[in-house]
Known about the structure:
The chain is α+β, with helices and mostly antiparallel strands and about 180 residues long. It has helices at about 15, 75-85, 130-140, 145-160, 165-175, and strands spanning about 10, 25-40, 55-70, 95-100, 110-115, 140, 145. The strands form two sheets. Strands 1-3-2-4-5 form a five-stranded mixed β-barrel. It has a two-stranded antiparallel sheet with strand order 6-7. A hairpin with a 5-residue loop joins strand 4 (about 95-100) and strand 5 (about 110-115). It is globular.
Amino acid sequence: MDIPDFEWVFGYGSLMWRPGFDYLERRPAKLLGAHRALCVYSHVHRGTPEQPGLVLGLDHGGACRGIAFKVAPSARAAVVNYLREREQVTSVYRETVRPVALGGGEEKRSHALCYLVDRSHPQYAGKLSNERQLELVKAGRGQSGANPDYVLATVKELETLGIRDATLEWLAARLKSGTARS
């Protein structure tokens, strides 16, 4: 598979707090046309096919604030290969390059490699109720660990960045308190 032409990688979930690749620069970024959502049944990293967890995807519509990581041209092939192994275990995402607005000092636009959820994939969960999301997250365990740890680490990173996400904050509050309902 060809290596796409990009300068940055856009992170909106675990890539924000655990990119796993070398980068030259890390900046706040905003992607238009997609939003962060717990909309992917995890069968590997945070769950199994028998007991799926729930992980984030970039779903159609809206906007998403996250982090962009600038990648050296000489490292792009290695970074893409790493991300394909990490993000495309079950091919639930579409690899694409999209324009992003970079913050952190001088505002500018650039192109970033992104992984958008494939709505036609069987692991696409769509929009689930908060209660159903909580149920799946609480039960999810996979190769990368417990699903609650993933949600809590993501919320912690979002808080550090000053990014609010009402659904993730609701889930985190219940995961921390051990309650299942509002």
